[in-house]
Amino acid sequence: MDSLVIAGRGYASRLLVGTGKYQDFAQTRAAIDASGAEIVTVAIRRTNIGQDPNQPSLLDALPPSQFTYLPNTAGCYTADDAIRTLRLARELLDGHDLVKLEVLGDPQSLYPNVVETLKAAEVLVKDGFKVMVYTSDDPIIAQQLENIGCVAVMPLASLIGSGMGILNPWNLQIIIDRLTVPVIVDAGVGTASDAAIAMELGCDAVLMNTAIAGAKDPILMASAMRKAVEAGREAYLAGRMPRKAYQASPSSPTVGIIGT
User: Fold this and answer.
1) Which one of 77, 80, 91, 171 has the fewest CB atoms closer than 10 angstroms to its CB?
2) Is the pTM of this model over 0.85?
3) Residue 202 contacts by C-beta under 8 Å, 6 or more apart in sequence?
4) Segment 115-149, tens digit of pLDDT
């Protein structure tokens, strides 16, 4: 399988996994192992990675020597809050600069506020961060984020935690066709077929959390997602057969048939 390259670094896995909503850090680790993910996201405002020395730390369950951390700004509703959160993450993780920016518009839909996202992205890129950015599936906004200098653009498939899958494959296709940085579907994946479809469209990777953590068997679902992402990528590279509306084509040869 070809490598996913983000900010000049290659990764064997094209599945990125969140670390929230699990029963405990032990289940988190088991799910991450089953997924094969090398990049894990962590909500700085919700997960202990050293802020509280008296509580268990995710760093013990998922050592940074084994995984690439992707601190994110989940729960931030303004550019200023997001910028402060990621600067704190950089201090906690000894200068780590690969981050996931998300600035939300409202607590009900968790839809991205693209105006605040653009403002934060400009500041963070100038501040030396390698910004992977959650955004809407608007191709124009996606292009602007790439132009600012984001190292990956992450359009939603559908609302965060909804499990509704890819609702607008046409916009995703435009973004994939236009951008040169990795395009990673982020939010809305509900099951393995959703992940496979994203990869078949030509997305470079898929990021998910609730689809795994919210499953009846998170460990088994993590394994399923791993296979789906790999199968979808292989199908994309192989190139699907042309669609033929109202035209059948027999699988077996039609010449040289016995008795003809």
Assistant:
1) 91
2) yes
3) 173, 176, 177, 183, 236
4) 999 999 999 999 999 999 999 999 999 999 999 99
Instruction: Answer for the pair 111, 154: CB distance below 8 angstroms, yes or no.
Output: no
CB 130 within 8 A of CB 111: no
Which position has the token pair 């003809």? 260
Q: Which two tokens stand for residue 245?
A: 């509306």
- What are 175-225's pLDDT values in tens digits? 999 999 999 999 999 999 999 999 999 999 999 999 999 999 999 999 999
Residue written as token pair 């050293």? 50
**Looking at the annotation, which residues are catalytic?**
100
Torsion sign, CA atoms 97, 174, 158, 80: positive
H-state helical runs in the chain: 25-35, 58-61, 79-92, 114-126, 139-148, 169-178, 192-201, 210-213, 218-238
CA-CA-CA-CA torsion sign (96, 97, 100, 101): positive
Query: Scanning the structure block, which residue is given the tokens 């997602």?
Result: 225
167 with 147: CB under 8 angstroms? no
